[in-house]
Specification:
Layout: E1 2-3, E2 6-8, H1 10-18, E3 23-29, H2 35-47, E4 51-54, H3 56-62, E5 70-74, H4 82-91, E6 97-102, H5 107-120, E7 124-128, H6 137-142, E8 152-155, H7 158-167, E9 171-175, E10 181-182, E11 192-197, H8 205-210, E12 213-216, H9 228-245
Parallel strand pairs: 3-4, 6-7, 6-11, 7-8, 9-11, 9-12, 10-12
Antiparallel strand pairs: 1-2, 2-5, 3-5
Helix pairs in contact: 1-2, 5-9
Length: 249
């Protein structure tokens, strides 16, 4: 059953997961056993659902109803697929402007990036199903509500996703401080997807290998790199500058 953004009960939560709903956070009563819970536990492992095992008193505070030892908060947004979104962008006569976040895991970074992305007119943000920041109420708040106004495409395999994008005419530009190419030397007026990498190790080697360009920002100080949300903002606004000059903004 649902309760103000949350859902409780073993069967309702299992059905929510199997129907494609995204669980932001799952609370499970310590020591919970049973055949139905075993089914839920398999789904928790399969979908890497963030789970906390808590005393029953915690669950009782979340709802006064029969929670059966489980309570979940649902993601505040609905996710899409880039295979649904991209044709619509082309049909509107637009030159696609996409952003791929490869395992950006900090909620505040994700929210800040989404806010900038919406401001510059990004057509969709693409994230992996595993390893990405939770798209929760904190992310929405940090984005200043931008996450409600931009498609978020959650994909199972980013390598297959970028293959599809390239086959659809999208140029891939991945950010890496190890590059020899400054972002100012790349044409951002084509159908474009900018790839930003995780806070820990940047864009994955698999995505770097297939990118059309690997770009970097100039750095004059001793600090090796910028925060991913700051770097993303700088790159997006260089793309905007170029697109303004050819009436694409």
């Amino acid at each position: 059953m649902k309760n103000e953004g949350g859902i409780f009960g073993l069967r309702p939560i299992i059905e929510a997961i199997e129907s494609g709903k995204t669980i932001d956070k799952l609370f499970v009563q310590k020591g919970l056993q049973g055949e139905i819970f075993s089914q839920l536990r398999k789904l928790i492992a399969q979908y890497e659902i963030p789970t906390s095992y808590v005393p029953v008193e915690k669950l009782n505070r979340l709802t006064g109803k029969n929670h059966q030892g489980v309570y979940a908060f649902l993601s505040p947004i609905e996710f899409d697929s880039i295979e649904n979104v991209l044709p619509q962008i082309y049909e509107r006569g637009k030159t696609p402007f996409l952003l791929i976040l490869d395992r950006v895991s900090d909620v505040r970074n994700f929210g800040a990036i989404a806010r900038t992305a919406e401001c510059v007119g990004i057509d969709a943000i693409i994230i992996p199903y595993k390893g990405s920041a939770s798209v929760n109420a904190d992310a929405v708040k940090t984005s200043a509500g931008a996450l409600y106004n931009i498609p978020i495409c959650k994909e199972n395999n980013l390598k297959k996703t970028v293959d599809y994008l390239q086959q659809s005419g999208i140029v891939l530009a991945a950010a890496s401080e190890k590059s020899d190419t400054y972002l100012y030397d790349v044409d951002f007026t084509t159908p474009l997807a900018i790839i930003m990498g995780s806070e820990e190790d940047g864009v994955s080697d698999a995505l770097l290998k297939v990118s059309d360009y690997i770009i970097k920002l100039p750095m004059a100080g001793q600090t090796a790199s910028l925060n991913v949300s700051v770097a993303c903002g700088a790159i997006l606004y260089e793309a905007v500058r170029q697109r303004l000059n050819v009436d694409l903004f």
